[in-house]
Each structure stands twice: as C-alpha cells, then as structure tokens.
Design a protein that fits this description.
By secondary structure, this protein is α/β, with parallel strands linked by helices. The protein is built from eleven helices and six strands. The strands form two sheets. A four-stranded mixed β-sheet has the order 3-4-6-5. The protein starts with a strand and ends in a 9-residue tail after the last helix.
C-alpha cells in the first residue's frame, strides 16, 4: 500500500477498483448508504450487499482505511460493526447521511470538471466514484481507476466533533465545496506523479503540487487550492499561453517557475 500525505486533512491511497470511461457515466455510487445501514442497525441484508455489490470498496475500507484485518477473517464483520459503535462515529454517520442525502450537485460538478479535463487531455481515463464513511482517515482514496470520497471528512468547518481533532487551518478544507477539487487534484497526482520524488528538493515538490493544484482550479473553475506556489504557476501560464495543460503537468524543468 502506497500512502502519500499531501495536505493536512487529505491523503492518498491505492486500492484496486473497476471503472467506466465516460463523462455521462459519472455518478457517485452510494456505498455509504449501505454501509450506514449495517453500522447503525446491524442489518444483515445490508452486510450482504456490502460484500456482494461493493466487495472491493468493503475490502478497501476494512483492510486499507481502518486496518481492522483481512476480509477473510471469520469475525471481521463483527469487528467492523463493533468499531463503529463508538458514540462519536455513530454521530458522524448520522451527520454524513443527513448532510449528503442529495449529492446531485456534486455529480454535476464532477461531470463538468472531468469533461473540461478530458477536453484538455483527451486520453485521460474517467474513473468511477463512490462515497463512504470512514473514521477520520483518508479524505480521498484514489487509484488509477476509482475515487472514493470519505464523507466523514467533509461535514463542514463548524462541525463540533472536528474541533476535538483538527486545527483551525485544517478545518477550512473540510467542507462540501472541497470534494470535487480534492477528487480532481488527487486523481491528477495519480496520473502525473513526480519522477524520482524522494530525490527532489522541497521546492521542486512544492512546484509540482502547485501545477496540479493550478490545473485543478482551472478545470473546476474555483480558486480553492491556492498559495504562493500556485501564484507562481499562474504567472507562468499567463506569460506562456502556448503551454497546454498537459505540457504544464509533464514538464520537468521547474526552474522556470522561480520568478
């Protein structure tokens, strides 16, 4: 399992999940609803659905996010159910299902963003999307085929429980408006990784992430991922209008951004 911590409230992991490669097919699958039914009521039918309709998502949740053990263990379902009986997590489940009863706005935003991304980079694959409820682990789970959205990390900066675990600056990005930009930026990270990452300077790493953030702002038509480094990239792109989005994301020489 490769894990890369990129921002204070979000990180990146790589399970394996299937895809459909069409803008029109983009729709967040509601794994969270099935999950919440089992975790709040112990509904056996919900557990069966988790294991038959969403087997890969369930494996990723149990083994990669929560690290409760293997899905093949005899008592793993009881471990999962017991884990979420904590009153804090029960409140989080209820809050997530209330806040995200309707996700049509997010589906439309994802379609718009990935349509624009594909227009700029026609060969890029379109992943599948699903929602889940974790335990304040990864915000976005990504591989080259799917994106999992942990709703427990997007309940709003004023969500009371967050104040027990996160600093004020972290809370700013833990709201609904960040879901689509986070999906895009972490997917771009998986598509355009930095070669020889461990050997690069911190400046080169910061500029690489800034290029991905700038691209995200561009395709989502927001400015949520913004800092001094994205400003450097913005200035560069304004002065080099012949540079395409793909050129920006694949260029190796970051010295040009030192202005």
């Amino acid at each position: 399992m490769t894990v890369l911590l990129l921002v204070s409230s979000c990180d990146f992991t790589m399970p394996r999940i299937a895809q459909h490669d069409s803008i029109d097919s983009i729709m967040i699958r509601r794994y969270d609803r099935v999950e919440s039914r089992y975790l709040t009521t112990g509904d056996f039918a919900a557990l069966q659905e988790m294991n038959t309709v969403y087997p890969t998502e369930t494996r990723a949740l149990i083994e990669d996010l929560l690290k409760l053990g293997s899905v093949s263990e005899v008592d793993i379902n009881k471990k999962l159910l017991d884990f979420y009986q904590d009153s804090t997590l029960q409140n989080v489940i209820y809050a997530a299902e209330t806040e995200y009863a309707d996700m049509s706005d997010l589906n439309n935003q994802l379609k718009k963003a990935f349509a624009k991304l594909r227009k700029e980079i026609p060969e890029i694959e379109i992943p599948t999307f699903y929602a889940q409820i974790g335990a304040f682990d990864q915000s976005i789970v990504v591989d080259d085929k799917a994106i999992g959205i942990s709703l427990d990390k997007y309940l709003g900066k004023d969500f009371p429980i967050y104040k027990r675990f996160y600093e004020k600056e972290q809370l700013e990005s833990m709201s609904r408006e960040y879901i689509v930009p986070d999906c895009v930026v972490f997917y771009l990270i998986s598509m355009f990784p930095m070669a020889n990452f461990e050997e690069r300077t911190q400046y080169e790493r910061d500029i690489h992430f800034a290029k991905l953030s700038w691209a995200t702002n561009y395709v989502t038509e927001t400015e949520l991922l913004k800092n001094d480094y994205t400003q450097k990239v913005n200035l560069f792109m304004r002065e080099h209008k012949d540079v395409s989005l793909k050129d920006l994301l694949t260029m190796e020489n970051n010295i040009e951004f030192d202005m």
